[in-house]
Amino acid sequence: MTDKNKIPYKIYLEEQEMPKQWYNVRADMKHKPAPLLNPDTLQPMTAEELSGVFCEELVKQELDDTTAYFDIPKEILDFYKMYRPSPLVRAYCLEEALGTPAKIYYKFEGNNTSGSHKLNSAIAQAYYAKKQGLKGVTTETGAGQWGTALSMACAYLGLDCRVYMVKCSYEQKPFRREVMRTYGANVTPSPSELTRVGRKILAEHPGTTGSLGCAISEAVEDATSHEGYRYVLGSVLSQVMLHQSVIGLETKAALDKYNITPDIIIGCAGGGSNLGGLIAPFMGEKLRGEKDYRFIAVEPASCPSLTRGRYAYDYCDTGMVCPLAKMYTLGSGFIPSANHAGGLRYHGMSSVLSQLYDDKLMTAVSVEQTSVFDAATKFARIEGILPAPESSHAIKVAIDEAMRCKETGETKTIVFGLTGTGYFDMVAYGKYNDGDMHDYVPTDAELEAGFAGLPNVNL
Amino acid sequence: MTDKNKIPYKIYLEEQEMPKQWYNVRADMKHKPAPLLNPDTLQPMTAEELSGVFCEELVKQELDDTTAYFDIPKEILDFYKMYRPSPLVRAYCLEEALGTPAKIYYKFEGNNTSGSHKLNSAIAQAYYAKKQGLKGVTTETGAGQWGTALSMACAYLGLDCRVYMVKCSYEQKPFRREVMRTYGANVTPSPSELTRVGRKILAEHPGTTGSLGCAISEAVEDATSHEGYRYVLGSVLSQVMLHQSVIGLETKAALDKYNITPDIIIGCAGGGSNLGGLIAPFMGEKLRGEKDYRFIAVEPASCPSLTRGRYAYDYCDTGMVCPLAKMYTLGSGFIPSANHAGGLRYHGMSSVLSQLYDDKLMTAVSVEQTSVFDAATKFARIEGILPAPESSHAIKVAIDEAMRCKETGETKTIVFGLTGTGYFDMVAYGKYNDGDMHDYVPTDAELEAGFAGLPNVNL
Question: Which of A140, A173, A259, B15 has most Cβ atoms within 10 angstroms of its Cβ?
Answer without folding.
Answer: A140
